[in-house]
Design brief:
CATH superfamily of the largest domain in chain B: Bira Bifunctional Protein, Domain 2
Helix content of chain B: 25-40%
CATH architecture of the largest domain in chain B: 2-Layer Sandwich
Number of helices of chain A: 16
Distance between the termini of chain B: 47 Å
Number of strands of chain A: 28
Radius of gyration of chain A: 33 Å
Low-confidence stretches of chain B: none
Largest sheet of chain B: 7 strands, mixed
Oligomer: heterodimer
Strand content of chain B: 15-25%
Number of helices of chain B: 21
Shape of chain A: elongated
Number of domains of chain A: 4
Structural class of chain A: alpha+beta
CATH class of the largest domain in chain B: Alpha Beta
Largest sheet of chain A: 10 strands, mixed
Largest interface: A-B, 98 and 108 residues
CATH topology of the largest domain in chain B: BirA Bifunctional Protein, domain 2
Strand content of chain A: 25-35%
CATH superfamily of the largest domain in chain A: Bira Bifunctional Protein, Domain 2
Chain lengths: 557, 502
């Protein structure tokens, strides 16, 4: 989740009155923040990715001022009429088709504000731009260049400029090959014959979207006027990013000036900071929340959330949503705003009236029974991960791999496949507990995974039981007695054991457990080579049963 | 007197027979008791004031390992001497050494002592004997043999000659001196009186046997009185895993609250894990770095076309739900990819797609997966507690009440509900519990009402209350753990010694 660090002194200026760390810790959770860390002069908070407008001090302050009723209702954003034109060349249509822009006048920047601008940009790149895939932002010192501006696409080796943070000119091709941002984001461009470029009247480069800005338009504490550009293949994401950014800058005290954006087929005026209208049925809100608030109360709660509302017909409110609230998709989102304005802490818990009868899942009923019996037989339950690797699962067990369910993106070599049996896990448990006293008798009742192409998911999970006994005199007879006791207590009648071969077990001391003449499991003495593989020193006997097969075969006629 | 046990009586008798004063060793010999048994009896007898213990420190000489070797094969200088005698009294050092079969390291020692004992001399590489016949054993050799035969020798008992030999052998590190405390017991007045009164020794029985019971002989024997406070040897019962105990408790609480348990596949299509829950296909949670995708098998099958289309349109433009949708072009290929489910909500929504008649109350406590590096606070697979209530008129407050009941039954009292966000619920919240030890609020679970964009494609007409939270976090609070890996480490010591009840 995204994070913002609020320095209390600076944040207080946005609120307009002094606040303490304690104030923030007390109130911020009620508008959707998680307190991550606190110190004497700052609070680090996490916010939910849908509220990307919380990426700035101004954004957080807007919301908190409303909640504390210092300033409620819709923040108004006026923008001055356009003076500057941005032309979108049709050459960009095949690579990064959309650009919207805004001019920001008379911004006062200090060290903190410049740093914040950079952070906002990164948060928007991630939260709305999806790591620049859908949209990316450029913030420029407009006084270093001369409008009008042109967004075009050029042959990569044909243009040179000094990228931000460098001193030498590089061609677009070189930037993609050598510059750190070029390397990181080359997948967004390297398939295109021409790369996007934003230039001024004289061909000076503002930026090479979505990779890097030019050094020429670098923003620092002395910058007073900004040019914001947002490009991307998703018009929606481009527009949302710009709205969030422009409103935050307006709340920092700057004046927003619109820009003519000339596409080959139409001209638009950007940014659009008009509030959106949405309908909210009062009865719907009350029904979902379990409340009986009146229209006036609902308006009050919405205004606390920096929205505005008025009754337009019986039971229906028209809600005005500020441009930065890009998270509002549906009426239900406004219902939550009513709840937040009402205060979650004021919602008194109630218990649903429905009378229902609970029941265990049949598979888990079996699992519970088996756990009870195995514990009674003196076995200690272990719980292993279902993810494992081929070395432990097959190689150490002397088994050839049998088409396991395999991960495409394992996080480590230790967890690459899903287990097909439980026994290797128990062997590993024995290997890791050699220092503990013997006898060691362990069992596990859990899932294994198998490929089954008849199912929608192509895989099935099955409940297995495996048990091991390990000590100086462990043998076939001991484990067979345990197995018999288990089957007897589970009420299984039509079973017998049959001599069998299994690479993990000693031949002549291995058997399958047959129910109605079909194998449901195996038992035996572990092969000494397997014991050596796991570096075990005591004789070990084991069995493993597919419990789901066992129970279904037993009950089938 | 009546309180004395057999071994104590036997000790007292032996001491009496030995004249009222004797060492532990002697008493053991006389009574036939083990040394340790006499020691134990002595402890009681002296506390009860039947005997007095005199402690005496003695120095005991015993052979070092090297000393033992020499006692058996002779001192190196003696072995060299014999070799030289066999070679006619004079030979090359190397030859004599070879003949004597001495280790190379011992040759200089042997030569040194040969000279010192004046048995021979060395000129250059030659070695000449000064004696024609083999000299008798010196006092050092005699002492070596004596200690070897007796095992230990009391230093105080050695005469002047042997004392010098002892010094020499100690310098050669062939003999070690140990201080030993010998205890002598002496009958006290009370002890004497007791014995004069006379008592007989009845044999005590440690283990009651079937024979004694059947023959009723138990009436004629005395059963040893046990020290009931002595620790018993450790025994480890078979039992459920501590985490399983907590899973069981969570399931019991759900069942008590009238919920029915559901269970679904852990390998799931992205469709059920994400798309059906209105999670856009470019949502960060769907990235490879958060979710495990499968390489084998890679893709699964989608459900009925009608359902898939409804989901697709809802993502793209909101369909008939009144939502704006996510505004992108939905891909069925992306939805077919198989994942290890990242939450049990995948199973819940699948269940609701086919069970629509209210009221519905279902739950699961089951495994989910996240592509996480395993560390002290993260694991790649864990358990999620999931509950769902569907009814005609359920509300957010009902959800809060249900959760409050659930966690109160778990023993967690101080619970608050804070606003939160999940792509598939609105309104959403998180249940927070105050951790008194850590002095901070901890998230227990996420919760909310399923969004219309989730319900409409499934044809669900009623509000759905849902919540899901990690079980392991609860388990860590319960078991007082600060490393989550402990839960799956299967450390036998921990499993054996963790109580079933916390």
């Amino acid at each position: 989740m995204p994070v913002i660090t609020l320095k209390v002194e600076r944040f207080s200026k946005f609120i307009g009155k002094p606040l303490t760390v304690e104030d923030l810790v007390k109130w911020l959770p009620w508008i959707g923040f998680d307190i991550e860390e606190t110190s004497k002069d700052y609070v680090k908070v996490e916010y939910n990715p849908n509220r990307i407008d919380f990426c700035s001090y101004a954004g957080v302050a807007r919301a908190l001022k409303g909640f504390l009723e210092l300033e409620t209702g819709l923040p108004e954003y006026s923008a001055e009429e356009p003076k500057i034109t941005l032309t979108i060349d049709k050459a960009v249509a095949d690579v990064r088709p959309y650009m919207l822009a805004a001019v920001v006048r008379n911004i006062k920047l200090d060290e903190d504000a410049v740093a914040e601008l950079m952070e906002m940009q990164e948060d928007l790149h991630w939260g709305v731009g999806r790591d620049r895939r859908k949209a990316s932002i450029g913030i420029h010192n407009i006084d270093a260049v001369t409008p009008p501006f042109l967004y075009t696409a050029v042959e990569p080796p044909s243009v040179k400029f000094v990228p931000l943070g460098k001193t030498e000119e590089m061609t677009l091709k070189e930037i993609l090959e050598r510059h750190e941002k070029g390397i990181a984001y080359k997948h967004l461009l390297n398939w295109a014959p021409r790369y996007p470029l934003l230039v001024d009247r004289d061909g000076k480069v503002l930026s090479m979207p979505p990779i890097i800005n030019g050094e020429l338009t670098r923003v620092d504490e002395n910058t007073r006027n900004l040019f914001l550009d947002v490009t991307g293949p998703s018009y929606d994401a481009v527009e949302k990013s710009l709205k969030v950014l422009a409103t935050s800058l307006a709340d920092m005290g700057a004046t927003i000036e619109k820009v003519y954006v000339k596409y080959p087929d139409c001209t638009m005026i950007s940014p659009n900071l008009e509030p959106e209208k949405a309908r909210l049925r009062l009865s719907y809100a009350n029904r979902m929340l379990g409340l009986k608030v009146s229209a006036d109360e609902a308006v009050k709660y919405l205004r606390k959330c920096r929205l505005d509302a008025k009754t337009i017909e019986k039971d229906v409110l028209e809600v005005s949503v500020p441009p930065y609230r890009i998270d509002v998709l549906h009426e239900i989102d406004l219902v939550e705003e009513v709840a937040i304005g009402y205060g979650y802490y004021n919602l008194k818990p109630t218990v649903p009236a429905a009378v229902t009868v609970g029941e265990k899942h049949p598979v888990n009923k079996t699992a519970d029974l088996v756990r009870q019996i195995m514990s009674g037989l003196g076995f200690l339950e272990v719980m292993n991960f279902t993810l494992t690797n081929e070395r432990i699962h097959y190689e150490l067990m002397r088994i050839t791999p049998k088409n396991p369910v395999k991960l495409a993106n394992p996080v480590s070599a230790e967890y690459t496949i899903m287990r097909q049996m439980l026994l290797p896990g128990l062997m590993k448990n024995l290997a890791e507990n050699k220092h503990e006293s013997f006898p060691q008798r362990l069992f596990e009742v859990s899932d294994i995974a198998k490929i089954n192409k008849r199912l929608e998911t192509m895989c099935e999970r099955r409940l297995h039981l495996a048990a091991v006994t390990s000590h100086s005199t462990a043998n076939f007879t001991e484990i067979k007695s345990v197995c018999e006791a288990l089957l007897m207590n589970l009420g299984i009648k039509n079973w017998h054991v049959k001599e069998a071969k299994h690479p993990s077990f000693l031949s002549g001391r291995t058997a399958t457990i047959q129910v109605r003449d079909k194998p449901v499991g195996f038992l035996g003495e572990i092969h000494p080579q397997v014991l050596n593989n796991f570096e075990l020193e005591n004789p070990t006997a084991a069995f493993e049963i597919d419990l789901e097969q066992l129970m279904t075969r037993e009950t089938s006629k | 007197m009546a309180s004395l046990r057999t071994n104590e009586r036997k000790t007292l008798m032996a001491l009496h027979e030995l004249g009222g004063k004797a060492t532990i060793e002697k008493i053991a010999e006389k009574s036939g008791l083990a040394h340790a048994a006499v020691m134990r009896a002595t402890l009681t007898l002296s506390t009860e004031n039947y005997v007095k213990i005199h402690e005496q420190k003695r120095n005991i000489a015993k052979l070092s390992r090297e000393g033992e070797n020499y006692a058996e094969s002779g001192l190196p200088e003696r072995r060299l001497l014999r070799a030289l005698l066999n070679l006619g009294g004079e030979a090359d050092v190397e030859e004599a050494a070879h003949r004597s079969n001495l280790d190379a390291g011992l040759v200089p020692i042997a030569l040194g002592w040969l000279k010192k004992k004046n048995w021979g001399s060395i000129q250059g590489q030659r070695c000449c004997l000064k004696v024609n016949v083999e000299p008798q054993s010196g006092s050092d050799e005699k002492l070596l043999t004596l200690i070897h035969e007796k095992g230990v020798v009391a230093v105080e008992q050695l005469d002047q000659q042997f004392n010098e030999a002892l010094t020499s052998l100690r310098k050669r590190k062939l003999v070690e001196i140990e201080e030993k405390v010998s205890r002598e017991l002496e009958l006290t007045e009370k002890g004497w009186k007791t014995i004069k009164k006379g008592f007989k020794i009845v044999e005590e029985i440690t283990q009651l046997t079937p024979e004694l019971i059947i023959t009723k002989q138990w009436k004629n024997v005395k059963l040893t009185k046990f020290d009931v406070t002595a620790p018993g040897p450790a025994v480890y019962p078979g039992k459920a895993h501590p985490l399983q105990q907590i899973i069981r408790r969570a399931r019991e609480i759900f069942l008590e609250m009238g919920f029915t348990e559901i269970r679904g596949p852990v390998v799931e299509t992205a469709f059920w894990n994400f798309d059906a829950l209105f999670q856009p296909q470019d949502h960060p949670a769907r990235e490879m770095m958060d979710t495990f995708y499968l390489a084998n098998p890679k893709t699964g099958r989608l459900p009925k076309e009608k359902l898939v289309n409804a989901v697709a349109k809802t993502h793209e433009n909101g369909w008939v739900t009144g939502s704006k949708g996510w505004g992108y072009s939905w891909s069925s290929e992306e939805a077919k990819r198989l994942v290890l489910r990242t939450h049990t909500t995948a199973e819940t929504i699948k269940y609701l797609a086919t069970h629509k008649k209210p009221p519905i109350k279902v739950f699961s406590v089951d495994r989910v997966y996240r592509n996480e590096q395993v560390t002290y606070k993260n694991i790649a697979e864990f358990h999620q507690i999931e509950g769902i209530v569907v009814d005609r008129k359920v509300t957010l407050r009902d959800l809060m009440g249900t959760l409050k009941t659930f966690y109160t039954k778990f023993g967690l009292e101080k619970i608050e509900f804070w606003p939160c966000y999940f792509p598939y619920t609105e309104p959403s919240a998180q249940a927070m519990v105050y951790h008194p030890k850590l002095k901070r609020w901890m998230e227990l679970c996420g919760m909310g009402m399923f969004r219309p964009e989730v319900l409409a494609p499934m044809g669900i007409k009623y509000p759905v209350l849902a919540w899901g939270g990690g079980l392991e976090r609860l388990a860590m609070i319960e078991l007082g753990l600060d490393d989550i890996r402990m839960l799956y480490g299967n450390n036998l010591g921990w499993l054996r010694r963790t109580p079933l009840c916390q």
